[in-house]
Write a structure and sequence with these properties.
With 295 residues, this protein is α/β, with parallel strands linked by helices. The protein has ten helices and nine strands. Strands 3-2-1-4-5-9-6 form a seven-stranded mixed β-sheet, with helices on both faces. Helix 3 links the parallel strand 1 and strand 2. The longest helix is centred in the C-terminal third of the chain and has 17 residues. It is globular, with a radius of gyration of 19 Å.
């Protein structure tokens, strides 16, 4: 990776490094992670000879499956910022004897660059680019999509997802209060909080948006009750995926964060006493139909 990591990217890396050993089992064999990965493989629909770029590839669930379908005449390059996740992915690919996939450490928002070209990531090269459950981790959403569009062949497509406004409410609340409790805001839906805004990312990048759709919910919907918000926050503190071990360590910080969390849940509930949190996504499918003008 050419550029030094920003403190924000270092923070993201440390979270996913910690989750890497257990990531594949966090939601169980029929849970969200394996189901979404299977959906991405279906949406990518790779064929023999296909060249695929799997961004934020994590432990390789999508990349390895796509590499099998692409066959020996095709290949997959997976990019992720977490070396621990990449180690798991490489071990899985070797165990499953999938040799036409490679996993490289890098920033998915810095791909039109010298380091990426050295790894075989070049403009006009890929049939499919995927980015599952990670687009909200990108800071410059328009810039990222424009750079990814350049990497597609004419006829190629990029696929990424953004939680709908009524989905993943705990993450949405944490995003809103992060700066007030002194932790890094790792993810953001700012500027991409509606179908229209997500579609605009595609069209502004010169991509066709007619394959855009909204997924079904991967869960029945979690009920978050205002009266139980304190317990909900305590559960989040105990899980690895929400906070790093060195966050919320100052005296009084946990209680302050808990109070802010409860107030935000109350706002979202709008007097109803509870809010249902879904797990569905705007699935942005953008296809490159022609040459893209340099900006």
């Amino acid at each position: 990776m050419a550029k030094p990591l920003t403190p924000r990217l270092q923070n993201i890396r440390s979270i996913y490094d910690a989750r890497a050993p257990t990531y594949d089992h966090e939601t169980g064999p029929d849970g969200f992670h394996p189901r979404q990965a299977a959906d991405y493989v279906k949406w990518a629909s790779p064929v023999q000879g296909c060249k695929i770029l799997d961004l934020a590839c994590g432990t390789g669930a999508i990349g390895i499956a796509c590499a099998r379908l692409a066959g020996p005449s095709g290949f997959v390059i997976g990019v992720d910022i977490s070396p621990a996740s990449l180690k798991v992915a490489r071990r899985k690919a070797e165990k499953e004897k999938v040799w036409n996939v490679k996993f490289v450490e890098g920033d998915i928002a810095d791909l039109v660059s010298e380091w990426a070209e050295k790894e075989g990531i070049r403009e006009g090269m890929f049939d499919v680019i995927t980015c599952a459950s990670a687009f909200v981790l990108v800071e410059d959403h328009p810039g990222a999509v424009k750079s990814w569009a350049k990497l597609l062949k004419i006829g190629g497509k990029v696929i990424f997802d953004v939680p709908t406004g009524d989905s993943m409410i705990k993450g949405l609340v944490l995003e809103r209060i992060a700066e007030r409790i002194g932790i890094v805001r790792r993810y953001t839906r700012e500027g991409i909080d509606s179908e229209e805004k997500v579609r605009a990312l595609l069209t502004d990048a010169g991509l066709d948006d007619r394959e855009f759709f909204v997924s079904e919910s991967y869960e029945a919907g979690e009920i978050l009750r205002v009266e139980g918000a304190r317990n909900t926050f305590d559960e989040m503190v105990r899980e690895k995926k929400w906070f790093r071990g060195d966050e919320l360590v100052k005296p009084g910080m946990v209680e302050k964060a808990k109070e802010l969390f409860c107030k935000e849940i109350e706002k979202i509930a709008e007097g109803e006493g509870q809010v249902r949190s879904w797990l569905r996504f705007y699935v942005a499918v953008g296809r490159r139909l022609s040459e893209i003008e340099s900006s």
